[in-house]
Amino acid sequence: MGELKGGWVGKILRVDLSKGNIKEQEVSKELAYEWIGGRGWGVKILWDELEAGTEPLSPDNKIVIATGPLTGTIVPSSGKVVVAAKSPLTGGYGDGNIGTHLGHMLKMSGYDAIIIEGASKKPVYLWITPNGVEIKDASHLWGKNTIETEIILRRDHGNDIGAIVIGPGAENLVKFSVVISEYGRAGGRPGIGTVMGHKKLKAVVAQGWNDIPMVDIDAAYELAYEARRYLMSNPGYRKWIEQGTMMTVEWSQEAGVLPTHNFTDGEFEEYMSIGGETMAKTYKMLRKGCFSCPMPCGNLSIARFGKFERTWAELDYENVGMLGSNIGIGSMDAVIKLNRLADEWGVDTISLGSVIAFAIELYQRGIISKKQTGGLELKWSDPDTAIQLAEMIIKGEAIGKLLAEGVKKAAEKIGGEAPKYAIHVKGLEVSAYDCHAAPAMALSYGTSPIGAHHKDAWVISWEMKYGREKVDKAKVDKVIEFQRIRGGLFEILTVCRLPWIELALDLEYYPKLFKAITGLDYALDRFYFIADKIYNLMRAFWIREFGHWKREYDYPPRKWFEVPISKGMLAGRKLSKEDYDRLLDMYYEARGWDKNGVPRKSTLEKFGLTDVIAVLEKAGIKLSE
Ligand code: PTT
Ligand code: SF4
């Protein structure tokens, strides 16, 4: 393990699916100390190893599956893993963070990360244990949905495994396919599942039994014990384990930001019937949690009424906002059904809800015709419309083939007014917060390093308290602060951020736990410096791919600027382009980027990214001093 003493187990597995090669490499001190893990390793490895212009769905693309030094340890909620690749949905850097037992099983098998390259000719899966690594035949799994697949893998290898799997969505190259674990956890929104599908890699499965070394085990146990006690005695704990992220439905309705009818209204009359309270009282069957989590938030719920009765799925706010209110569906039973289909097929619920709502809006406005929809009449609030459209997407039928590309590409192909109703940033569909009247949250979506996702800077709750009208530096500072913590610290340590954001666990626990486990004394500021470095490298990745950069790429969806909210307490409100540009200017300035959003030379030098300067300049990109 070289000089690494704890946290990291010291090896990376490299699998070439074209050649059938399996190799091991040491984790260098630089990679561990300067890039930590998870997203840090994802972007560093993809930057170093991919050529500019790599076709995302080709053997040349690579998938990085990376844990962090705290993953799989006694640290509360440390069962997380980052999956990263060049995105087939956006063409830029893509990653996602999934709660899965694969994290600690992989580390206990002896590996911190896996790099998957090439592509197999026939379906395969990876089977990893301390006794060896095998590329196994997966012909019997190909075509099976994610739930059937994981059941078979558990039958064949025993229940004590960690696995990520893909479904028919990824096999059919639907561009927003994710990886699924444990029947209802999902990760890799920008099509990381699709890249696996193209490589014919059906699953990655690990079973480990080695120890994960910790430098000061007593200190780690003491700190973890304190943190757990704090979390479980928090006054918000009970409601959290009853509802988890689902309590956000009611909050979003009150704030006027619940996506409704393709982000047309900020309110939904039937929100109560798809809200956290209703779920907890009537639908929730079981509380599920990730590895090592004292505050389990998985809402395993079962449909109770009507034709979907007995269907079960794991509900989260994003799923319900996008597959419920955003397509006008006020039936929890129908939302469970749609959520379940997305999980079985392994497609992202957010993008699926967005493409369905987009198609309905275009149809209702007369932008697409019944001929284009294959004879299907597209109606709001109709579960059958949504299910049929979803099936067409998975099978690539009629307009489904177009929608499988995501709203950006679909809108470009349809043309005319269509792009005005495509709710995305950089090609990634916006998650469930309407920002017609939330400029800081719009900036968060606009500058998120993988396209529109709330994971990096979920500032909307803060913004509502601070003043949604205000357009000032404090908003920019908050976006950057959250990007450092949520998009940086938690993504590189690769542990769940919810103990901090939901139950106010002091952030100082993380450097202390990091020290106890790895022996390295890093203050929070050092993690934030690394986070900023990673942000610059993610930005450089996009610029290298696009060959140039325009500030318009960092704009939120046109609809928020051009089409005001149609009803509710915010009726008539829309985002001001002038205000947004002011925020964006301040953001670029604070990040050390030029007026087009390109990092300055001096900024890249500050982070030691001199090789990045050389690559960008060689590609003809002009960097300001
Ligand atoms: C995340 C995105 C989210 S964010 C949700 S619900 W969320 C959606 N879940 C999906 C799903 O389910 N099925 C499906 N087919 N597609 C789905 N797409 C959507 O994917 C559990 C939690 C959640 S629930 C969130 S916010 C937090 N995310 C974290 C993060 O990103 N980093 C981190 N360090 N900690 C986090 N903790 C929380 O984890 P993506 P999960 Mg996810 C059924 O991966 O690509 O970022 O997309 O991993 O274990 O399911 O998340 O209201
Ligand atoms: Fe997983 Fe929820 Fe626990 Fe986070 S809080 S580790 S998402 S169960």
Q: What are the defining features of this structure?
A:
four-stranded mixed beta sheet, Aldehyde Ferredoxin Oxidoreductase Protein, subunit A, domain 2, 26 helices, 3 domains, binds tungstopterin, Aldehyde Ferredoxin Oxidoreductase,  A, domain 1, alpha+beta, globular, six-stranded mixed beta sheet, 13% strand, single chain, 625 residues, Aldehyde Ferredoxin Oxidoreductase Protein, subunit A, domain 3, binds iron/sulfur cluster
Describe the structure in your own words:
The protein is globular. The chain has 625 residues and is α+β, with helices and mostly antiparallel strands. The protein has 26 helices and 17 strands. Helix 17 (439-447) crosses helix 19. It is 42% helix and 13% strand. The protein binds tungstopterin and iron/sulfur cluster. Tungstopterin (PTT) binds next to strand 5, strand 11, helix 11, helix 12 and helix 13.
Radius of gyration: 23 Å
Question: Numbering strands along the chain, what is their spatial order in the largest sheet?
Answer: 2-1-6-3-4-5
**Helix content range of the residues, please?**
40-55%
According to CATH, the homologous superfamily of the largest domain is: Aldehyde ferredoxin oxidoreductase, N-terminal domain
Distance between the termini: 40 Å
Main β-sheet: number of strands, strand sense, barrel status?
Answer: 6 strands, mixed
Examine the coordinates and then state which fold CATH places here, giving the name of the CATH topology of the largest domain. Aldehyde Ferredoxin Oxidoreductase,  A, domain 1
What's the architecture of the largest domain, going by CATH? 4-Layer Sandwich
Number of alpha- plus pi-helical segments: 26
Ligands, ions, cofactors:
tungstopterin, iron/sulfur cluster
Give the low-pLDDT segments.
Answer: none
